[in-house]
Each structure stands twice: as C-alpha cells, then as structure tokens.
Amino acid sequence: MTSHATISIEPVGVRWQSMLPPLAVLALAGLGLLSSDYVVTVLGFAFIYAIFCTGLNFFMGYTGQASFGQSAFAAIGGYGSAILCADYGWEPLLALLFTMAISGVAAVFVGYPTLRLRGHYLAMATFALGLIVYEISIEWTSLTQGYMGYSGVPPLGIAGFDLVTVKQQLVALAVVALFGVFVAARLRQSRFGRALASIAGSEPAARALGVDIARYKLIAFVIGALYASAAGSLFAHFVGFISPEVFGVTMVVQSFAMLYLGGIGTMWGPTIGAVIVSVLPEALRGLKEMQDIAYTAILIFILIFAPRGLAGLSALFKRDRAQTREGA
Amino acid sequence: MSAESPSPRGVPLLEARDVSASYGHVQALKPTSLHIAEGELVTILGPNGAGKTTLMRALTRLTASKGSVLFRGEDISGLSTHKLARRGIIMVQEGRGLFPQMSVRENLIIGGYLHPADTEEQMGTVFDLFPRLRERVDQLAGSLSGGEQQMLAIGRALMAKPQLLMLDEPSLGLAPRAAFEILNTLRELNRRGIGILLVEQKAPLALRLAQRVYVISLGKIVAELQTHEIKSHHDLARYYLH
C-alpha cells in the first residue's frame, strides 16, 4: 500500500510564502492567549496532533509506507510520562525525553521484523501493534489503572518552572510543534530525506541506486515513533489525565484524516490538517444535530477539490502559474 | 564516470556462474553463465519471455537467485542490490523506474545518492550527454516524453558513477529515432570505459553497438557470438526459433 504522497522534494526556501504557515501557527497561539480556556484546550489538542501527524508523515508521507500503529508509541509516551512524573516525581521534560528514548528502542524492536512486510500486510501488522498496546493499557491495571485512567500528571515544566496555566502550555505546544516541523523539513532536505523520497517513489529503483531500503524504513519508523511518543507525553501533561481511549482506534482515524486533509507528504500538511480537523467540529458546534453532517460534508468537499490536501493546493497554483507563463 | 579500478589482467569485470532463478515452482532462468570484460559492451538478445529480464534481475539481486556472481574476481553473490550499487553495478530497469512526481533535477540528485559531494559535477556530465535534460531540469519526470524519460533514467544511473551499467530494454516503447539516439549514447558511455550489459529485443540496433552477444531462449543461453561473426539476421533467427 504505497501512499499517494506528494514525494517531490520541496525546497525549504526563505520566501515569504514559506513563512506563512509558521506565522499562522503563532497567530493561532496568539489568538488562544486572548480566548477562553476552552479555545485554548482545542488549539492545544490541535498542536499535539500536529506533532503526532508530523511524525506519522515521515513514515507514511515521505517514505510511502502504511502504519496504523503509531498510537502505540503515543501510549508509551503518555503512560511513561504519567507514571514517571505522578508516581516517581520525575521532571516532566526529563520524563518526556526518557519515554521518547524508550519508544525509539521499542520501535527498533518492533520495526525490525515488521517492516519486512509490505503494503496491506504491513498495515495490518502495525494495526495489530496499536491494538496490542491498547489492550495492555486496559488490562495491565497495576501499571496503567485500566479504564480508570491515570490522573495527577503535572503540567510541563523543568527545574521548578512549571507551565501552570493552559495558555502558557499552549505557547509551549506551538513552539514544540513548529520545532517538530522544522526538524522534519531539515531532515527531508537532507540526503536521508532524499533516500526516503526515493523509497516512496519506487523501492526497486531506490535499491538499484544504492539506497538501503530496510535501514531507512526502520529509521523513518523510529522517527515517527519519537514524534508520537512526544505527542503522547505532551497530551498527558496538557490534560493531566490519560486513559486507554485516548490512544485507541479513534486516534488512528483522526490522524489519518488530518494527514490526508492537510496533505500527506508535504511539510505543513500535517499541521494544517491537525488544526482543521480539531477546530472545525468546535466551529460547527452551533449547528447542533447537524454538526456531524456539516463536518463530514466539509471534509469530503475538501478532499474532492484538494485531493492532495490543503497544503498541496499551493503546488497546484504554482503549476497553474507556470503553465500560464509557458503558454504566454 | 568511467571504471576507476580496473580488473587485474584477464579477470572479467563481471562473471556469472550457473546463475538460476525461479518464480515459485517455475524455473524462469536455468543455470546460466556469462561474463563481461572490462570496458566491454555486451548484449543479451532473445524473444519475449526468454528470461532476459529475469537474468538481469538475478544478477542484481532484485530477484532471488542461485549460483555465483563475481565482480572483478570478487564473489558478490551474497550482496543485496544496494550493496552492488555501492560497488558500481547500476541497473536501469525496464519501465525506467523514474520518480514521476519529482522533477528532472530531483531524480538526478537522488541518482547521486552514493556520491553526494560530486552531485553538481556529475549533473554537468549528464547534461552534456543529454542537453535536453538541462532544458527540462525543473519539469516533472512524469511529464517527459518517452525518449526524454529514458535519457533521465540513464542520466540518473550515471549519477551513481557506474562501473558496470545494466540496462533492460532501454529502447522499449521509443520511436526509432529516439531509440537510435539512446543507443548511440550508450556507445559513447562505453567508449568512456563503462562496461555495459544491455538487454534488448531490437536485434539490429543492439548488434550495431555490442562487441559480443548472448542469445537467450527458454530461460537459458543458447549462443554466445562475436558481433562480427553474425553475417545476417538469419544467423540469429535460428536461435530465436530454438
């Protein structure tokens, strides 16, 4: 199941257009500071999902593979941070980094055998991974407290400086989300990123050009796991509570919607998709019983008219302009 | 771009010994042996379904195979495709295997994956060989004509600095003029010292280039001929009808 990602290597230019998405993220965060805690919470979730989807985009968009199991690593991050901070008094930032490392190691162990599979088989194997971790989070009650969930997770902070208000946390989440996109963009422009793009384009061709497919797939999977773990940890610290449902199938469906709506394989697509999918239902809340219908109709409308996602629209406009110039 | 560390005298650039490959229970390639000397251009001819592509894929480990393959006398049978590429064995696959959603430049940059420091220099060499690619450098590979796509596929392979270039039906689907151009370029590359193993169905074109020909039929090599020994195409036809 090769994704239909836009695998062209976008230049990370410093043209004014490339500054729009980060400015939009900062503007959203700024808007949040002037809004109610409810709006702040919605935007906070959007930024957390943006981090998660940026990682997922690495594996699905840049590398053209399918993974339904990234929620497993978010669960490791979330529960890891919750347990380490609430029960053992770890610094939240330290716990976040430690659980990222644990998730990375877990991704290597899981990915090494799993990534030998391709297409639908890989999709099913990763889906099973997500389900297994979900079941563990329910059944291993002595560790996770099962359906009861884990409460008392402290807010993000370091060395006694805690982000106690949700608005402070929102700013931190926006900065982390931007940093996540920046790192992803830099990696994508590197030799490593080009290798991933070649894998997404054609595995046999990439192999024939000297790209070690197995190694790079594994690295992309691990990077996705690191992002997912960070997102899980941030969720735990932002909400102060986690339960198994957070990391269930809904998370997988939600993140896929964000990825495809925003533009899989593009730099800003995951962030755009995360914001739209998180904010839109809230914006439509006034429609009451028509809310779900309107929400779904808008998503379908976007996917029909922007099949490469909203971030792909800019490429479409650029091509149209280029064709117009050529025609002139 | 050419071979940098030639084989010791008398040692072939590539030697395959009893290489065979199967798809399930069907043996598509019976134990086959061949060799390519340093700087030689060798063609594998044969009808459809004879096993030409399977032989290429077996040699480059894109298909699981048995038997042994030696590169400059060193056994490379156990190496995977990407490791062969690192040794300088680069294959241009049938269908070209381009990245259609990437530009010409991006395809070439990925071609230079193994030699990132030399990307600009190699790209210049490719553009000198195929000036049309320079004109199309920002165009999407998928929007190029068939001939231009083949140029790009070969150009991308050259970015990897091959010592042995293996091409599977580079003239497939091309107009005669474009096919002629492509094959002429291969002759030029061979003059620069790159060993070439060419799978081709268009015998007249291939015979103009190659120094030596293997004829493959029903999954096995049925003849090995020096090109000058072939007086007419009737000489080949009997092998095709083998």
Strand percentage of chain A lies at under 5%
The CATH level-2 architecture of chain B is identified as 3-Layer(aba) Sandwich
In one word, what is the shape of chain A? globular
Helicity level of chain A: over 70%
Q: Low-confidence runs of chain A (pLDDT<50, min 5 residues)?
A: 1-7
Radius of gyration of chain B over alpha carbons? Answer: 17 Å
**Which H/E pattern describes the elements of chain A?**
HHHHHHEEEHHHHEHHHH
Strand count, sense and barrel status of the largest sheet of chain B are: 6 strands, mixed
What is the CATH level 1 assignment of chain B?
A: Alpha Beta
Quickly give the CATH architecture of chain A.
Orthogonal Bundle
> Globular, elongated, flat, extended or rod-shaped: what is the shape of chain B?
globular
Name the average pLDDT of chain B: 87
Secondary-structure content class of chain B = alpha/beta
Helix content percent band of chain B = 25-40%
The number of domains of chain B is: 1
Helical region count of chain A? 14
| Low-confidence residue ranges of chain B | none
Q: Report mean pLDDT of chain A, rounded to a whole number.
A: 87
State the CATH superfamily name of chain B: P-loop containing nucleotide triphosphate hydrolases
Widest sheet of chain A: strand order?
Answer: 1-4
Contiguous helical run count of chain B: 9
